[in-house]
Amino acid sequence: MEQAIHTTPIFWIIIAGYFVLILGFGSYFAKYNKNTNDFFFSGRRFSWWLITMSIVATGVGSHSFLKYSAKAFEHGFSSTMTYMNDWFFLPFFLFGWLPIVYYTRIRSIPDYFERRFNRNVRILATIAILGYMIGYIAIGFLTMGKTLEPLLGWDLYTIVWVVAIVAGIYITFGGQTAVIFTDLAQGFVLIFAGLLVFILGINYLGGFDIFWNALPADFKLPLAHFNKPSNFNFVGIFWQDGVAGSVGFLFMNQGLIMRFMATKSVNEGRKAAAFNILFLLPISTVVVSNAGWIGKAISIVTPEKWDTAIKLDHVFTQVASLVTTSEVVFAFIIAAVVAALMSTVDTLINAVAAVVINDIYRPIVKDRDDKHYLHAAMVISAGATLLGVVAVTFFDNFPTLYEAHGFFHSTMTPPLVIAIFLGIFWKRYTTLAAVATFLVGAVLMWLGNKYPAGLIGPFDHGIEMDVTHPYTYIRALYNTLVCLVSGVVFSFIFTRKVEVKIEIFTAKVVSNAKAHLHSTDSPVSAFGKVYYTLIWGFANMINSFVLNAASDEKLDGITVWTLDKAREMFKGSKPNDVPGEEPVVHWKIEASSDSYVRFSHMQMKEMAANVGDLVYLSDKRRWLGGLKSVHSVYAEPHDEDGVVYMTPDLIDAGLLVEGRALRAEKEM
Amino acid sequence: MHELTFFRTWLPVIYLYVAGGIIFLAGMTIIVKSKSLKLDRPMHKRWFYVLLFGYFYYLGIHTFLTYAALNF
Predict the structure, then answer these.
(1) How many CB atoms lie under 10 A from the CB of residue A32?
(2) Are strands A643-646 and A584-589 parallel, antiparallel or unpaired?
(3) Does B59 touch chain A (CB under 8 A)?
(4) A88: nearest CA partner in chain B
(5) Which residues have a Cβ under 8 Å from the Cβ of A105 and sit 6 or more positions away?
(6) Distance (Å, rounded) from C-alpha A644 to C-alpha A496?
(7) Is B60 on the interface with A (CB under 8 A)?
(8) What is the dihedral of CA A203, A205, A209, A214, to 10 degrees?
(9) Helix/strand/coil (H, E, C) string of A335-389?
(10) Does ipTM surpass 0.85 in this model?
(11) How many whole angstroms separate alpha carbon A295 and alpha carbon A305?
């Protein structure tokens, strides 16, 4: 491919400089990682505002600028649909999944499946989640390739390979604190860069009136046509993105879950999510789409300036190049987008390594030192990168990134989404029903893919079937329904009582088959050996799926109906919810091998706290967002008002500075 | 470009807030019934209103933008 946009060495120096700067920023904060809890979850210490800004980069940074600019150019303001339909699931998230994740301290989604069901369901969930993340990595690579294609003039796959190698280098910087702070910086930069393109674009056109009046009414409607065309229609995108995508992002994104677990409390996590959806998503949608709207207006107002041969996925790069008069500004915008993409892909590669190590490798290869697992993680990261590059070929078959991503969401998310949802919100959902959601659901989804007209057609809401890519979006409705029906029907057939009976029965069959196979009194024939081996294997498999099926006690704390239990388990005793004040105190060290804090009698009264309650202490300077803070337990009070006695481990873990006052909050 | 029929203009808005509204209402009902959201606690009551506000806030945005596209 020929280079469509010409650049000078200054452009590439700025790109490299930006990368160095952002990596330096992240690695500076990586020093705050004291242990693995810090590394993965940042010690559960941050304020909502810090987390909400870092979430912006997670959502916006990944593939958004290119795919939304392309659709915005083609279809107008309705490109905003996908950012403006997340609120419907918020009650489920804020008061369902978020407190469960936080209070049960689950480390991954497969970990939840093991606690809710058993080890085999965990394995199924692990496979599904790995497929989801590797698909995401592939889309990230493809996006980066498409961003750089018109700048480098290289073949797309050459760029993808180069990007994959750079991602491998980038991955050595890490830890959740570093990611949070890198994303915090990039959240601001991305919003600034996107709005800058909009302002420069309006200026380029000669004012907002010219921009607004140039565009037809159809282009300015915020939602697409109900069911036309097949590659961009409202109802398909509602089910693909508003339902499967929203739930996928809120409930299945390991990176996002780890971000919420880094907040200092569940309430801070709620604030971060609500603020993000209420205020930052409407801004973000303008940030990622406006290049398409500006591009369309330019193509109408000054058609001679617009390259009509341009590929849709290159609209963003083309508009950024046109409206920025200086190469420095253009380089800054491209660097911000590419670095954010790199950060998203990097987070996903790390998440794949974490899931493989914790959910597959460690249970098989036990009791090795950390160095061994670290080395294995590096090999797995390289493997995930390679798989991501290979999967690019599949997604490159779609006309645009938007459609590739739409198909991916419609296909990969429904089984996991339904299994997580029923697991959290429906107590009667059983282990075999969860297995059916994955396996029977997958078979029915495959049949839908094979016979789209007959199976997905009845749900198409009048959308015309595109023979090359049938029902890219509305298949999400069919896929979600078949997984849901599988889960519900199997829950009614294989109730918990039935599962217990199956467990006993299959255990007997296994033991009988074993006895026949090993009998010396009456040895079985060759045919009998095959027969009993098959019986043994099949019964063993069924038994392993129903083994330790969920009992009422096992559900404690892991469904929305038993959340009080989760809080009690988190604290270790009954929570104290009496509201209290938040005094400012100075700390003094008290040598002890235990870990605790001691306040004065008066301040315990102010905080309405009792010995054994949980407390959060943070540096008084709120702008630090909890970077210097620690959680602990109240011990026996003293009589020195305004002073808190803390053990040395807490001073160290909280990164507390001598002489700096602390704010104390009773947690529960 | 499409003609400005009901399918192009207001039907998507209605579908979004009816279908989305059913999901939202189901969520609100479950969290209240399960006592995950306890309406007798002041902080939870505030969250109840924030959740309701968010639904109508987005309904307002989409209604306004549709009206503005058709009339200005």
Answers:
(1) 19
(2) parallel
(3) no
(4) B24
(5) A570
(6) 51
(7) no
(8) -160
(9) HHHHHHHHHHHHHHHHHHHHHHHHHHHHHHCCCCCHHHHHHHHHHHHHHHHHHHH
(10) yes
(11) 10
Instruction: Say whether pLDDT at A404 is over 60.
Output: yes
Q: How many residues does chain A have?
A: 668
Chosen for mutation from B58, B59, B61, B64 (greatest number of chain A CBs closer than 10 Å) is B58
CB of B63 less than 8 A from some CB of A: no
Domain positions in chain B:
11-71
Given a cut of 50, is residue A36 above it in pLDDT?
A: no
**Interchain contact B46–A (C-beta under 8 A):** no
In the three-class reduction of DSSP (H, G, I as helix; E, B as strand; rest coil), residue A400 is classed as: coil
Q: Output Rg (C-alpha) for chain B, integer angstroms.
A: 16
Among A4-13, A295-304, A453-462, A465-474, the least confident range: A4-13
A236-284 confidence digits (pLDDT tens): 999 988 888 888 888 887 777 877 888 888 999 999 999 999 998 999 8
Size of interface A-B (CB pairs under 8 A): 120
Largest separation between any pair of C-alpha atoms in chain A: 97
Residue A40 has pLDDT above 50, yes or no: no
Which B residues, 24 through 43, put their C-beta within 8 Å of a C-beta on chain A? 24, 27-28, 30-31, 34-37, 41, 43
In this complex, is the C-beta atom of A544 within 8 Å of any C-beta atom belonging to chain B?
Answer: no
- How far, in Å, CA of A95 to CA of B24, rounded? 13
